[in-house]
């Protein structure tokens, strides 16, 4: 299974043994519990993680206990000496007050133990020490109770706040002041009159968020469902935070509570007869509502997710396939939170709690849920369809634990399936998706600012699944001052309102600016040095961050040269991406955005380095590969192929490459490819001739006919500035010829013809060849006048005499002399 559940708490293991031992110590024996084994059940999970449970003895007395999730110890809270059924229970933060609602026992022959005319009794009990019991409600409708657990420093709190949720569709808040008596004893102040107020009414659905102390509920107004949220604070204040229309069908006759504990009153057989509705949030300001209507057919399931912080909803319809499908209890929406756990989900009702916790009411087990990484990796290897590969790849990358291990496994999979995908490029998708997931938790709406996939739109049909995306109305905020989560949600909503339709970052601007800089370099022109220095400083920051990620020595010979072209590309990307995020993330600090940009770009470079390192390690190559004077092995062919695929993947997206990548790729290309293929790769831009690579080639190769042909073919394809440098490294008539041609071109480009004497001094020339002598004389005059004006400086002793000698040698070669 892709989902794994690890038990954090088990009622039968963590509570039952202690109760048996306590019963034995009192002389009652274990049988006092064995006869009422099934009465032991969980009632509630409080904000601090403590679990409240109940059980009965053989006399029917009701016991309340608490399991401390931190000390993993059990504590007896209270005993109600009547045979009644518990509906709901909650304990305040200090464990001094217990609220409980109880109803008449279902056993036949029992007389009414409650007050005459009442069905449900709601009590408030002093339990530190056990003292007074106050009746809060004695009514014919069921009542659920929940203490507020605010995050405050003071301990104990002078006032407690208790929510009462009625089956009559209203919610009240009681304010309970307490005072200390007789040392540590706590009693209720003015217990005869407890202030209370109506919080909500006429609702058909409500959910309690115990972690954030929020109440979500749905009202029906003119047959429209309106979602509302109330935020409770440490004092007695609370605010209605927002209202949002929900395009779902809820019945006015229905009544459903989420996360208000569990009671036997809920008929589990009717679990799938009601719509399923859950609200999920996280710290980035997201607000999601998950909804599944009543199941009318077991042939397919429909569910919707309303992404209010993004302004759209997605409705999925999935075919179940076989008639014996395990989906017989409806849909359960789970919050997986951060991210590792049973091979099968429990059959009973589940409650999704904060921190990736899931409570199975029937078994009394509390699970921590995560994606099963081992299963997902196995699924990745077995996937045959492209949409399966993409879906599982993103699931694996969303597991943010031990990312280095997961990325290594994905790279291994990619290297074995490099050509097995037709709808998208595996390397592209891995780089884009992994980079996105690496900074996804930083802020909301990241999916609208950065690409999360290399595929802009998925047009291939997925069998058995349909998806409909619709725009939805944004929540209407009811307050004007925001902090914490609400500030981020408000920022997300403002972004949706005023953002540009297509605000995804792309490297199109970087592409234009980079080509402009390279063009300026070729023509000898360059914009202000301060601008270029700033760009290169950006690249230094990225590469420093990249080196900090990789502490072990590298196998691949990268980062051994400046590679200014790639550094310019990296620096430009930093500048453009920073401007892009600053433009759209107005509520985020500039420093934080700069850090996000450095993390994002260094992550992309790091992924490319990881792919290369993995390929290098797999084929057992060594850094001495950085030479031309050896034949290529099969392993080197394989690495060259991977590097070519990396280049293809990054080229269309215009992503930067690690400095030294092109040099290494060219070295392998020279060793792996026949000359005509090599030149074809160079002419089509697959292999980029770097100064480092060509310098190494000139030094490593001898002057055999084959090597000369290769060298000359390379030199004539070099940019002029690099070509001039490289020619001086090759002591050969060909290079002398090229140097001479460049020298003559440079001298004559501004030459203006002047009258010259027709008499030539033959004594100054070594050869009596009038055209050459005349031309050499012109060059000598230009050089002399240029030096006189300080406008010309010699280049490595290249002058008219050098040109004359080169011309004669070239002619001699051509004539076969």
Could you please describe the fold and organization of this structure?
Residues 605-712 form the Gamma-secretase-activating protein C-terminal domain. This protein is an alpha+beta fold and 817 residues long. It is built from 21 helices and 28 strands. A six-stranded mixed β-sheet has the order 19-15-16-17-18-28, with no helix packed on it. Strands 10, 11, 12, 13 and 14 form a five-stranded antiparallel β-sheet that branches. Among the domains are: 375-473, no CATH class; 507-688, no CATH class; 735-752 and 765-786 and 797-815. The model is unreliable at 108-112, 265-272, 338-344 and 788-794 (pLDDT under 50).
Q: What is the typical, i.e. mean, pLDDT?
A: 82
* Span of the ends, CA to CA: 81 Å
Strand percentage, roughly?
15-25%
Spatially, the strands of the biggest sheet line up as 19-15-16-17-18-28
- Major sheet summary line: 6 strands, mixed
Number of helices, counting only DSSP H or I runs of 4 residues or more:
21
- Count every beta strand, where a strand is a DSSP E run of 2 or more residues: 28
Specify the overall morphology.
elongated
What is the SS-derived class? Answer: alpha+beta
The parts where pLDDT drops under 50 for at least 5 residues are 108-112, 265-272, 338-344, 788-794
Radius of gyration: 38 Å
Helical content stands at 25-40%
